[in-house]
Specification:
binds zinc ion, Metal Binding Protein, Guanine Nucleotide Exchange Factor, Chain A, 7-stranded mixed β-sheet, globular, mainly beta, 2 helices, 3-stranded antiparallel β-sheet, 10 strands
């Protein structure tokens, strides 16, 4: 069973439809240094899908970089707001990796593993243990 769902960048100029399989080949949190830098945060939450099931509206601006493994990864950003929407790699013929934060319905994303934990920020491994506040820090009691 695949789920048909939708997503978009922060400003909404780039939107997409995507088919998500029950058990994607990859669905997880990547802690590699490249993902830390391109997201500007500790890890990338993403999932792999067949690119044939992705219908993009709006044009992404791609930025390409060689990986440690010698493959070439291209990350697609909204040219207006800069959100990363998806990535493609010279390693994958028919796949995209979709950035989970762009999904309209976060409940369709079920990460199953952490990868490249050798470069993980220590706090990212312990994120579940941090204090939880439902809104902004100003709402702390
Ligand atoms: Zn945008
Ligand atoms: Zn990564």
């Amino acid at each position: 069973m695949t789920i048909k769902t939708t997503g978009k960048c922060l400003c909404g100029v780039v939107t997409y439809e995507v088919e998500i399989p029950d058990k994607p080949f990859y669905s997880g949190l990547c802690h590699c240094r490249d993902c830390q830098r391109y997201t500007g945060t500790a890890f990338a939450s993403s999932l792999m899908v067949d690119n044939g099931g992705v219908k993009l509206k709006g044009k992404l601006k791609f930025y390409g970089k060689e990986t440690d493994r010698g493959t070439f990864m291209e990350r697609g950003f909204c040219p207006k707001c800069g959100s990363n929407v998806l990535c493609k790699s010279s390693d994958w013929d028919n796949q995209y990796v979709i950035s989970a934060g762009t999904l309209d319905d976060p409940s369709v994303y079920n990460p199953r593993l952490n990868i490249f934990t050798r470069s993980a920020h220590a706090h990212a491994m312990d994120a579940g243990k941090l204090a939880k506040i439902e809104g902004s820090p100003a709402e702390r009691t």
